[in-house]
């Protein structure tokens, strides 16, 4: 029914559509400033910074999901796989596709000798929280995400 493979450069336009779908679901489509061209450079240029899997519906060969990940280093835990985005198109949710994709990422973390994996979930996204609870995931409270945009950094440093 589904198959998973490593992502290729030619998958990026469809992956970007899934990213935009996720942004709409998360009520923040205006926050997407990435582009397919940026993803090509960052994923397939001379210094790739991420990897990804694509989830394909076998009957139609349509890409219906993706998991985009990279590695980070925790001074407390060591090498960790960071699952940046994990997306299954809405019409395919609840059919086992997400489980298959998530477990493939879990396996990747072990293949690459990571001490574990991490990701974020919005506090209002109960379907996702319930999904992660099935895996006994530690969902931390009390941590805030901090961000500075490049233009803000430039402004402060000038």
From TrEMBL:
- Record keywords, A-Z: Acyltransferase, Transferase
InterPro entries tied to this protein: Acyl_CoA_acyltransferase, Diverse_Substrate_AcTransf, GNAT_dom
The answer to whether UniProt assigns keyword Acyltransferase to this entry is yes
User: What is the species listed in this Swiss-Prot or TrEMBL entry?
Assistant: Echinicola arenosa
Has the keyword Transferase been applied to this entry?
yes
Name it: GNAT family N-acetyltransferase
Domain N-acetyltransferase: residue ranges: 2-158
Highest taxon of source: Bacteria
